[in-house]
């Protein structure tokens, strides 16, 4: 019991970083998950990591005067790490948005509190499916492993280089955009072929109201093709996400 204040301070430091990361990870950061549930999950995660990470946080918990500053630094590091993962996960949202545009469903939008704006309805479905596929592939183990490894790269109380984080964020955004275009490539090809065929039809039969025929046909064909390629898209996304996590975000 004499060491309880030290243990409690160390656990609070661990909870600050692990909880901040969890608040930005896919699925756990959704507004549909109540805040109390997220706090309980973060507390359980910190408790599970205590046996592994306690040697890394206990030495820094001895100085009670610096506790507030340490908590601010740890929360900042956790938010930065969680945001990097979230940026890479936006590839699924961008791929679904491209698919919606090619199918003519770009106006079917819903408010997304996580993005602070509107997102295509199809993107919400793809994000949920991508999250479930990532969990089925065991990528949440890599997310937890990244939290553990972060204490070797960024020890407690060490302020990371903001320039390095900015460079990593820019690189991650580029990789996410490249991955999104790759995932949506079948829908891009479909959109080009359909619009070219639509243009030829309009030239061959100018008196026909092509728009009234093309719009329902575009949605039907696009949804059919999207249903066929969705499984491959989600699998490719999960594998790319896993490779990115295992490569050390290089």
List the topology elements.
Layout: H1 4-22, H2 35-57, H3 67-103, E1 109-112, E2 117-120, H4 121-136, H5 139-153, H6 162-183, H7 185-204, H8 210-246
Antiparallel strand pairs: 1-2
Helix pairs in contact: 1-2, 1-3, 3-4, 3-6, 3-7, 3-8, 4-8, 5-8, 7-8
Give a structural overview.
- The chain is mainly α and 250 residues long.
- It has one domain (4-246).
- The chain has eight helices and two strands.
- It has helices at residues 4-22, 35-57, 67-103, 121-136, 139-153, 162-183, 185-204, 210-246, and strands at 109-112, 117-120.
- It has a two-stranded antiparallel sheet.
- A hairpin with a 4-residue loop joins strand 1 and strand 2 (117-120).
- The model has no long low-confidence stretch (mean pLDDT 82).
Question: Which features would summarize this protein structure in a list?
Answer:
single chain; mainly alpha; 2 strands; 3% strand
Strand order, largest beta sheet: 1-2
Structural class: mainly alpha
- Domain count: the total is 1
Beta-strand level of the residues, as a percent range? under 5%
Shape designation: elongated
Describe the structure concisely for a colleague.
The chain is mainly α and 250 residues long.
């Amino acid at each position: 019991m004499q060491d309880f204040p030290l243990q409690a301070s160390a656990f609070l430091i661990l909870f600050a970083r692990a909880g901040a990361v969890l608040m930005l990870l896919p699925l756990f950061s959704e507004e549909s998950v109540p805040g109390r549930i997220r706090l309980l999950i973060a507390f359980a995660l910190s408790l599970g990591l205590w046996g592994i990470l306690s040697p890394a946080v206990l030495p820094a918990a001895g100085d009670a005067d610096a506790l507030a500053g340490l908590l601010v630094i740890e929360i900042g590091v956790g938010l930065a790490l969680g945001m990097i993962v979230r940026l890479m996960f936006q590839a699924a949202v961008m791929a679904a948005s491209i698919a919606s545009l090619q199918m003519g469903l770009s106006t079917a939008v819903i408010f997304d509190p996580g993005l602070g704006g509107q997102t295509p309805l199809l993107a919400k479905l793809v994000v949920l499916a991508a999250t479930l596929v990532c969990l089925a592939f065991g990528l949440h183990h890599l997310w937890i492993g990244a939290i553990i490894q972060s204490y070797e790269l960024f020890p407690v109380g060490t302020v990371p280089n903001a320039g390095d984080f900015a460079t990593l964020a820019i690189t991650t955004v580029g990789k996410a955009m490249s991955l999104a275009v790759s995932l949506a490539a079948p829908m891009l090809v479909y959109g080009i072929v359909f619009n070219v065929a639509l243009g030829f039809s309009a030239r061959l039969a100018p008196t026909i109201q092509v728009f009234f025929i093309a719009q329902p046909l575009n949605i039907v064909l696009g949804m059919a093709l999207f249903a066929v390629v969705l499984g491959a898209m989600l699998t490719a996304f999960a594998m790319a996400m896993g490779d990115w996590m295992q490569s050390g975000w290089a």
